[in-house]
Design a protein that fits this description.
13 helices, two-stranded antiparallel ribbon, disordered C terminus, alpha/beta
Length: 466
Amino acid sequence: MRRGKRCRFLQMALATTLATPFLFTPHSGCLAARTADPAPGEDGSVELVEPVTPQTRVTKQALSEVPATVRLVDARATPKTAALASFLTGVGQSHFVLYGHQNDLHHKAGMADGNPSDTHDIVHDYPAIAGLDFQALEHGDFELTPEEAAAGLTLPEKMARILKNGADKGVIFTATAHMPNFDVVAKRGRGAKGEKDWDYTGYTTPVLEGDVVNRVLPGGDLNAVYCEYLDRMAAFGHRLAEDDIPLIVRLYHECDGNWFWWGAGCCSAPQYKNLYRYTVEYLRDVCGVHNFLYAWSPGGPVRSAADYAQRYPGDAFVDIVGVDMYHRDPAPGDAFLASLDKTLDVLGDFAKEHHKILAVTETGILTNGHAMAERGNVRKTWFSEVERVLERHPVAWFMTWSNDNRTDFDQPYMVNRTRGHEMVNEFVDFYNLDSSVFASQVPDYGKWHVVARPAKAAYGYILSIH
């Protein structure tokens, strides 16, 4: 743990009362009492009364460690991709933490005003990290309008334009891969539009049957249908490269669980590692994609480095290590923050030993097993509480999941220009913290001169596909 983060945490720890409404004075660690929370209306929404303070851009000089050389999975990474890795490394070694939100630029629960971002509706800024999912390139997360379809626009091109618009505002992008079950895809057969027209639509990721991990590897009968899906992922990567946009690609997340076809209940640890390694080598070496950083994130809590590393693909295949860890049914004084703190103690040491960037790749509130509550949340200061914990650790970012609608959301939202979800004022408090970083604070790291070197191959077996 860095001294700066420890000292910062000790200052902030003076304010740990969870039941009393509060706000953080911008650019300080002090707390000031809010005289009263605004009263909720019949729909549970409250008046947005907390002023948003414009935040200062994070400069290279504000980061104590910004490496000029980075060890990456891809030694041929584009200059901007290498610079992004350097920036994230520097953030992790500072008291800053980037805030992320899944699908922020193309999904929202709040008011329909033409602006795609619930975050921007509240704080007039975008998250520093925005998530997307590769499945959106086939179906599901958004659709083409009739006008877009008539003009020949495709879903990948629409997504690429969304990312370009966000990148121009400072947003960094990370993509999760909820890949379909390729046994299901293969059984459908090829479509009528062409010999490569497999039907990858439908959310079949949780279908566990089919021994998919074993069958998509070279020599397996599903290898062709799998590689064609990877070709589509690679094509999107090449499209982003035209606009010089790096992408953090998170492959086969929550691999220690039993809810995806690549989880521990469906394949052995060696099979999983081979799958991850093969996928990286295919995208990097066969498809020639060089603007990807590769993230790996089992579920939490994590009790030991040995437990965490059971399915670790190896240093030569991972740029970012992370964890998915949700706060279930928050209650005053419960153990979540302590558990998160202990998990990050383990992962901080792991990241340092393996020379990796550290992130909390998914987190959020789960009420009755299903996202945030529309009203009655007992930990309204949750975002600031989590920030205090993360400040102690070399965490580059944390990301909450998607706002799909007003019954399935992981971040507060506005219902109109003056009123919002009951936690909007506390979210502004979180934004005003000097440690939380949003898009307007992200520097033009693409101008930094950074050299990529190959990551150390600490794990001897590399699956060859040449």
